[in-house]
Design goal:
By secondary structure, this protein is of the alpha/beta class. It has helices at residues 15-27, 51-62, 73-76, 83-93, 105-109, 117-123, 139-142, 145-148, 178-186, 197-205, and strands spanning 3-8, 32-37, 68-70, 99-104, 125-129, 152-154, 157-159, 165-168. It has an eight-stranded mixed β-sheet, sandwiched between helices. It binds adenosine-5'-triphosphate. Residues 8-11, 16-17, 20, 103-104, 106-107, 129, 131, 174, 176-179 line the site of adenosine-5'-triphosphate.
Amino acid sequence: MSLGIFGGTFNPVHFAHLRLAEEVREALALERVLFIPSADPPHKDRDLAAANQRLEMVQLAIASNPSFEALDVELRRPGPSYSVDTLRMLSQRYAGKPLWFLMGTDTLAELDTWHEPETFLGLTNIAVVGRPGSLHCALELLVPERLAGSFVAGRGLLRHPSGHEIRSVPFPPLGVSASDIRRRVARGASIQYLVPDTVIDYIQKNRLYEGAA
Ligand code: ATP
């Protein structure tokens, strides 16, 4: 069976992340979805919680779902954290299992800014869900021009020469974002029903995002 790989900042993890992972897991009959928080970038933003805190929030959020797992691989690797390196490692660890990288349309549209995007596309399938506020159009128009040339369009999917595909998965639009959640915390507004209660407790106990811009 296939594995889902869900990389992100998760600053903090929220219900749109969780619902996205559940929808894609079900639609593609994935065995498991691995949540992989990114490490701390060299120049840390003021409102970026520490990597271990973002990992702990993910662990709290997914605790009740046996199909979800949190991996600390990007936290344990020294230097900048690149998804392509994580995929190289996972494709060896899970050799023979198809991998699906989960992302929203906003992320697909900026894939050309990632490290070694061509290599990344050769290592994984991609499951894309629509994100409110980002472009809504055919997959072939969403993929950055520089990367689009190597794909062949099929029915609701794009096929890469490596055999991998980019496929869109239906997703009821959820206008939740981590940046909005951080701003709400900073102004003392409620974040209930945007984030699991266990994550709200964690944010309060650790006084995260109180000065977020
Ligand atoms: P921020 O608001 O700080 O940019 P975020 O909410 O986008 O954060 P990330 O951790 O950067 O959270 O997102 C991880 C992945 O989840 C990305 O691929 C992003 O497109 C996707 N994603 C996040 N929120 C949504 C949403 N509401 N709908 C669809 N996809 C989403």
